[in-house]
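Task 17 of the worksheet. Students: predict the tertiary structure of the chain below and write it out as structure tokens. Keep your answer in the requested format; marks are given for formatting as well as content.
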Amino acid sequence: MELDWRSFLLLALLAFACDSKATSTDPVTSVMWDYYHQRLLGGEAFVFDEQVKLSAPPFAEDARQVPIQIDATALSDEVVRILAWAELNPIPQIVDFRPGEQVLPRLAIRIRIEQATPIRAAVQTRDGLWHIGSTYIEAAGGGCTAPSVVRAQAGWEEHLGEVLGKRFTLADGNRLRLQVAHPMDNGLVGGIPEFFLNQAELRDLQGQRLAVMELFPAVSENPTISLDMRDATPAELWLRDNNGNEFKAQL
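Model answer:
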């Protein structure tokens, strides 16, 4: 009898469950996991997987600027999508990242957190299985509801969308590290509506997409993002915010 796709997915899940690096046991024991499993992953098959490296400081010194890094290179070329969220944030989603063939499944970004919270990185492979990386950040809190530092600076509008970036050589590719001037308003500070970068694409100089990102207001103001390419291919970053402003920068 032929096996349907659900049977193949079940076999894949069982195979991963037998791997010492994958387990069904939540490493951070969050009461919110089942909710986000349904809401963001649609209840699809998953494993908590040590091959997804989610790095963050144990304590947020500045809850408005918390660096995290997601590294799924151990899953090789099978990665098709990476989601990240902070479970106890008022706006939990951080990024939806789809790396193309020339971009490694590795991403660093700075975020805001409102209180101590589990952080998740869900990495989907070509077989449809989600591999979950987890960590926990302690924090004094208030990062999502603190007044904007950017808006307190005179003339910030004149620098909106400016990109500062640099390329670094790595052992397995090239790192593009960039900072974008933008307040990333999340709508939680009185009298200031949502105003944030919500779309980003890394393109080659012919305009072909190399990677696609959807960004959410949990990303810090003046966001800092690092992407890793497999080679030194020239690239261009295209960005758009929720007010329709578009920005470009060659890297």
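Marker's comment: Residues 7-11 have pLDDT under 50 and may be disordered. The CA atoms of residues 48 and 132 lie 5 Å apart.
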